[in-house]
């Protein structure tokens, strides 16, 4: 006979552990209910879960909301929670990968604003960038800085770079036609 301690995966999960898992999934579902519909669309949730969350948002009666959140928790049992938790940690600013990506964007913006020779390097690394838009934003950002104006173009440059430089671990957005169907 083999020792049961060697086969940790074969041991049954305790009732208490199952209950903790169910409650954790319910809590995760509750966090999803608090997000905007646009944010939820970016998460690529299963359609039935997405619809249940949307339904919960429109309920006003306390009892109906409570039942719907329990139903969302039930649907969450069939969903891998790891990508959802990862996306939520990014939204909360707790993700090291996300923070590193933001720092990368900031470094690139500073390089582009201080050195004209960096634009060809940036374009070589990220060929999908709109060259004309970048040049305009860089020129305007430099002008704003010299005139001590608010850094509107610098912020717009940062946003444009966010579209070009992919965030690690985040799936690409679905095309807009699929978003409109939901």
From TrEMBL:
Matching InterPro entries: DarP (IPR006839), DarP_sf (IPR023153)
Molecular-function GO terms, alphabetical: ribosome binding; rRNA binding
Keywords: Cytoplasm, Ribosome biogenesis, RNA-binding, rRNA-binding
Domain of life (superkingdom): Bacteria
Annotated region (Disordered), positions in chain: 1-25, 145-182
Cellular compartment(s): Cytoplasm
Gene Ontology process terms (BP): assembly of large subunit precursor of preribosome
Family the UniProt entry places it in: Belongs to the DarP family.
Protein's UniProt name: Dual-action ribosomal maturation protein DarP
Highest classification ranks of the organism: Bacteria, Pseudomonadati, Pseudomonadota, Betaproteobacteria, Neisseriales
């Amino acid at each position: 006979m083999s020792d049961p301690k060697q086969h940790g995966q074969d041991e049954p999960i305790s009732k208490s552990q199952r209950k903790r898992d169910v409650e954790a999934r319910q809590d995760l579902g509750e966090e999803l209910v608090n997000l905007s519909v646009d944010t939820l669309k970016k998460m690529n949730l299963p359609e039935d879960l997405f619809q249940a969350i949307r339904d919960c948002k429109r309920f006003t009666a306390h009892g109906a909301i409570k039942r719907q959140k329990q139903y969302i928790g039930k649907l969450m049992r069939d969903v891998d929670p790891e990508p959802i938790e990862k996306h939520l940690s990014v939204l909360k600013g707790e993700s090291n990968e996300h923070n590193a990506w933001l720092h990368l964007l900031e470094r690139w913006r500073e390089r582009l604003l201080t050195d004209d020779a960096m634009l060809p390097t940036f374009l070589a690394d990220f060929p999908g960038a709109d060259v004309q838009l970048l040049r305009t934003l860089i020129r305007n950002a430099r002008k704003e800085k010299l005139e001590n104006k608010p850094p509107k173009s610098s912020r717009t440059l940062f946003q444009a770079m966010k579209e070009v430089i992919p965030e690690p671990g985040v799936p690409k957005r679905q095309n807009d036609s699929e978003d409109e169907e939901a």
